[in-house]
Write a structure and sequence with these properties.
By secondary structure, the protein is α/β, with parallel strands linked by helices. The chain contains eleven helices and ten strands. The chain has one domain: 2-enoyl-CoA Hydratase, Chain A, domain 1 (Alpha-Beta Complex). The strands form two sheets. Strands 1-2-3-5-7-10 form a six-stranded mixed sheet, with helices on both faces.
Length: 225
């Protein structure tokens, strides 16, 4: 049974919201299967469509479920990371417009998930974006690096990766890590409004152009796609 706390909802105007609602929204086998299932449903929609990904409360996503990876998931690490990379690739190269409504903290894999969307709006009054692997002693995988390099300017990404800096909404917009910032009550609405305005672009042409923009990332994240 897939995680009941992750679901795809119709929001009107050809917009679908991929909603995560399980405290820190960490990635483990169960949540990863649920996320891919929701994307399967979204990709099956014909015609105009756009995706908005969001969390609830103070977390967008806190990334990998390290407790699970060190226990029940210890024997499935490589296969699991392939699915994480595939998730990033399915969003980055989706043939529909995608937006991240970053409602709170986006750390590590959660920051990467936010990054790969076409439009990113960060909550302005609370929450940080952070790539803390340097402090955790966990080198980035090639897939993680590819996801981050695709949508974050090189000098900014260098600072984020080598220092583990926490970025607030204003700094994110200034540094090109997000396109907009909004108060808590307006984060999802801002992302949804943008998505609705772009939904008519969904189709093969958009997907082809995205793959052309980031061919190296496509080969790394979706090697058979």
């Amino acid at each position: 049974m897939l995680w009941p706390m992750i679901e795809l909802r119709e929001a009107g105007d050809h917009v679908y919201v991929l909603a995560m609602d399980n405290d820190e929204n960490r990635f483990n086998a169960e949540s990863m299967a649920a996320l891919h299932s929701c994307l399967d449903d979204f990709d099956g929609v014909d015609g105009s469509r756009a995706l908005v990904t969001t969390g609830t409360g103070k977390f967008f996503s806190n990334g990998l479920d390290l407790d699970w990876l060190m226990s029940d998931g210890a024997d499935s690490g490589p296969e699991f990371m392939t699915e994480v990379h595939r998730l990033f690739g399915r969003i980055l190269f989706n043939d529909a417009p995608t937006a991240a409504a970053i409602n709170g903290h986006a750390f590590a894999g959660g920051a990467m998930l936010a990054t790969v969307h076409d439009f990113r709006v960060m909550r302005s009054d609370r929450g940080y974006f952070c790539i803390p692997e340097v402090d955790l002693g966990l080198p980035l995988t090639d897939g993680m690096t590819a996801a981050l390099q695709s949508r974050i300017p090189a000098s900014t990404l260098h600072e984020a990766v080598v220092t583990g800096k926490r970025w607030g909404a204003e700094d994110m917009v200034s540094a090109g890590m997000a396109e907009a910032r909004a108060d808590e009550a307006e984060v999802l609405a801002t992302a949804t409004q943008w998505a609705a305005s772009q939904a008519h672009h969904a189709g093969d042409t958009l997907g082809t152009m995205k793959r052309g923009l980031y061919p190296s990332a496509h080969a790394t994240l979706l090697p058979t796609g």
